[in-house]
Amino acid sequence: MTVLRSLTGLAAVLLLNSVAWSQSELMIYPNDGQDQEQQDKDNFECYSWAKGQSGFDPMSPPMATEQPPQQEFRQDGVARGALRGAAIGGIIDGSDGAKTGAAAGGALGGMRRADQHHREALQQQQWEQQQAQQYQQNRNNYNRAYAACMEGRDYTVR
Questions:
Q1: Which of 22, 113, 123, 146 has its CA 20 to 30 Å from the CA of residue 78?
Q2: Would you call 156 helix, strand, or coil by DSSP?
Q3: How crowded is residue 18: how many other Cβ atoms within 10 Å of its Cβ?
Q4: Is the distance from CB of 28 to CB of 143 less than 8 angstroms?
Q5: What 3-state class would DSSP assign to 35?
Q6: What are phi and psi of 62, to 5 degrees?
Q7: Are 60 and 96 spatial neighbours (Cβ–Cβ below 8 Å)?
Q8: What is the reported pLDDT for 121?
Q9: Taking the mean position of all CA atoms in its chain, how far away is CA 101?
Q10: Tens digit of pLDDT for each residue in 52-90?
Q11: Considering Cα of 116, then 117, then 120, then 125, what sign does the dihedral take?
Q12: Per-residue model confidence as pLDDT tens digits over 15-61
């Protein structure tokens, strides 16, 4: 479930960035009067060559390059903290201490759990950003290789 949620998050990040990426797509103009058939042939051959050179295929869906961060072992929450606090408070000061200990333990347990959630969310966000940056770098390498190939066949690439 966690892996699915992580991959869904990555897909969302990549989808949001796809608007910017699609605006940076290459524009190709034939300089030597190449007809449409020749342009299609050159386009396919340069696509294949650039894919081989960069190891990136712009036609395949984005894939994560590494596993998402693992969830931490669950720390104490409010209920466990309250039970521990009540037990310790009860030993020290009877029923009044148990009430005070339960309140303090519950608050501490809740804070620990909230802190854990925050750390996990931050790790997830960093992982998603790293994956998006890696995708963009691979895409740029492909675009450079593709542009070099097309320019070598007498096209203007912008």
A1: 123
A2: strand
A3: 12
A4: no
A5: coil
A6: -60, 140
A7: no
A8: 87
A9: 42
A10: 999 999 998 887 776 777 766 665 555 565 556 555 555
A11: negative
A12: 444 433 443 589 999 999 999 999 999 999 999 999 999 999 999 88
The helix (H) or strand (E) run that includes residue 4 is helix 2-23
Burial 65-82 (b: 16+ CB within 10 A, else e): eeebbeeeeeebebebbb
User: In whole angstroms, what is the distance from residue 63 CA to residue 57 CA?
Assistant: 11
Q: Taking a C-beta distance cutoff of 8 angstroms, is the pair 3, 67 a contact? A: yes
DSSP 3-state assignment of 33? coil
Q: Which two tokens stand for residue 124?
A: 């997830």
DSSP calls for 53-80:
HHS--TTSPP--SSPPPPPPPPPP-HHH
H and E: helices and strands count for the chain: 3, 2
CA distances from residue 33 to 5, 29, 142, 143 in whole angstroms, order as listed: 50, 9, 25, 23
Average pLDDT of the chain? 76
Which tokens go with 55? 């190891």
Please answer whether residues 109 and 78 qualify as being in contact, where contact means their C-beta atoms are separated by less than 8 angstroms: yes
Residue ranges covered by each domain of the chain: 2-157
Q: What is the torsion angle, in degrees rounded to the nearest 10, for the CA atoms of residue 90, residue 92, residue 95 and residue 97? A: -100
